[in-house]
Amino acid sequence: MIDRPGAKSAIDSLRQKAEAALRRAAEGRDALYAYVVARDPLWLAVRRPGRPELIAAAITFALVAAFLLFLVLFDWNWVRGPIGRAASASTGREVALKGDLDVRLFSWTPSATVRGLSVGGPTWASGRNTAEIERLDVSIRLRRLFLGQIEVASLTLTRPRVHLVVDSQGRRSWDLEPDRPDDGRGARLPVIQQLVIHDGRLMLNEQRRGMTLDAVVTAREARSPQDGESGFVLDGKGTMNGEPLTLRVTGGPFINIRRDRPYAFTAELAGASSRLSAAGAVTRPFDLGRFNARLELQGRDLADLYLLTGITTPNTPPYRLRGSLTRDGARFRFADFRGQVGSSDLSGTLEVNRVEGRRRVDAELASRALDIDDLAAVLGARPQVTTAGTVATSGQPGKLLPDAPLRTERLRVMDGTLAYRAASVKANAFDIRQVRLGADLKDGVLKLDPVSFAFNRGELNGTARIDATKDTPYSAVDFRLSGYPLESIIPARDGAPTVTGRALGRAKLEGPGASIHELAARSKGSLSLVVPQGRMRSAFAELLGINVGAGVRKLLSGDQSASPIRCAVADFKVSDGVATARTLVIDTDVVLAQGSGTIDLGAEKLNLKIDGETKKPRLLRVWAPITITGPLASPDLGVDVSAVATQGGVVGALATLVSPIAALLGFIDPGLAEDADCGSLIASAR
C-alpha cells in the first residue's frame, strides 16, 4: 500500500523549496533594478539628461536627418560611372549606363529605373554587345531581402536587345565564367512576380551548327479582358545549315506567381527536317533546371536531331515519337515514349546526363514488330520512302553493303549505352524472327555486343568494335552463323529444294573505313562457311562434275531424288578487301568438287571456279569447271567455255587419228575421285 502521509510531506517540501527559489530570484531582480536606477550612468543620462547628452542627441538627429535629406535630394546620375566601372570589373565585360539613373529607396518595395544600359561582349564575338536595354524598371521586396531572399516585385524591360554568339570552339558570349565547367544544371533566376517586356529581340548565332535565330520577345500582364492576352511569348525564325528554322515558346502570366506553383509553358521547334513540340510546366518557377512536359518528335531522320539537341543518333527512316520529358538539373529523361520509325514500332526510355563534364546518353529500346529494312537504314543503308512503305538500299545501284559514312566527330562528344530488342520481325527474305543489339560508347570507341539475329532456324551472333577517335574509324568485327538452312539461301526448283542442310559460318574482319562498304573494301581477316552434312538434288550433284548424261537426264525427267552431302567447306583469306579461296570443297556421294578464285569485297564481285570429279564411272563427262562470276547481288553461273573447246579439240584429233569409237573416250570418266577428309577440312575452316 502507498504511504499517503509520507507522499504529501514530500510534495510540500518540494513546493516550499520552489517558492524560496522564486523569492530569491525576485529579490535579485529588484536589487539590480534599484542599482540601475540609482547608479547606472546611461540610465541617469536618459532620465535626467545634462547639457552634454542634449548636444550629443542633437548632433545624432542632425546627422540622420541630413543623411535622409541627402538620399532624397541625391542625383544618382553622379554615380553612373562608378557603378558601371564596378560592374565591369565584376563581370569582366564593359558595362555602361548611358542614360538617366533614378533610385527610389523609401518604400517596402525599393525600385530603380535605368536608361541606356549596355553589357559588352567578349572580344571574339565580332564586337557585338551581349545586351542592350533602352529602359529597365525593377523593384524588389525589402522584407524578403532581410530574410536573405531576392524577390522581384516587378520587372519591366523596354526594347531589350540580346545578342548571343557561340563560336566554332563552343565558346558562349554570355558566359561570364568561361573557365568553369558547364554542369548542365540550367539557370536559376530570382522570383519575378510581374514581368513586362516591350518590343524585345533575341538574336542567336550558333556557328558550330550553322544556326541563326532572330526572335521577338514580349511579356504582358493583362489585368482585364480589355488589356488583351497576357503571358510570355518568344517567336523566332532563322536558319540551320541553310534550311528554315522556327521557334515559338509561350508561357502564362507572371502576376502573382509562386515558388511552389508550377509555371505552364509550350514550345515548338522546327528545323533540320525535324519538329519538336512540348507542353508542360516548370515545376519550381524560375528554376529552369527542373520541368516536365509531353514531348512529340517527328522528322525525316533521327540523325538530324544532332543539330538541334547535340545528341548523336543513328540514321533512320522517317519517325514520329511521343513521350514524357523531365529535367532534373543536368539529367533529361524521355520516358515511356512510343511511336513509329519507318514501318517499325519503337518504344522505350532515353536518358541524357552530364557525367565528368561529358554528355552521356543511355537508352533502352524495344519493338514489337521490326521491319528489317528499317534496321538496314540504321546500319548505314539509304532509306527510301515509297507508296508501299520504307525500303533501304546500299545507296549504290546493284550493291549490297551500305556506304553511308559514320560521323566520327559526333561519336567523340558523348558516351552512352544502348539496349535494343525486337520481339518479332516482319516477313523478310532472310527469315529473321528476332533481333537483339547492345552498344557501349566511351571516349570515341563504340563496342557493339551483342549483335544477334535469330532466324526461323539458326542464328547469327557477333561483336564489333569501332575506334572513332580519328577521322577515319578503325573497325573489327567477329560474327558467327550457326544452323542457318541452306534452302533459305538457294531457292527451290520445280517445287522441291535444290539443297538442304545447316550452314555454319564466321566472318572475322578488321580495317579502316567510314562505312560498312569502305571497311569491307580495305579489310583483312578471314571468311568461312561450312556445311557439315546435308542433301542435294541428284541432278545438280551430277552437274557439279558436268556429268552431262546423268545430270541432264535427271533434270529432264523431273527426278527429285537427293544425294547426300558429306561436307561443304568454303574458307577465304581476306587481304586489302579481296577474299582468296584457301579451301573450296563440296563433297557428295557422287562428285567431289573443288574450287578456287576470289571475291572482291570492295567491288562486290565474284570470280570463282569449281571443278568436279566423279566418284563413279560416267559417260558424256565434260571436262570443264563451273564458273561463278559477276556481282554479289546477282551472280552468273556458267561453264568455262575455253576448257570445253580444248576437250572438243582433243576429241576431234582422236577421231581423225584413231577411230570414232576412240573419240568417245574423251567424254568418259572412270570415276576415280575419293572422299574428302571432311573432319580435317571443317576443323581448319573454323
TrEMBL record:
Pfam families: AsmA. The chain crosses the membrane at residues 54-74. Residues 58-176, 232-582 form the AsmA domain. Keywords: Membrane, Transmembrane, Transmembrane helix. InterPro entries: AsmA, AsmA-related. This is AsmA family protein.
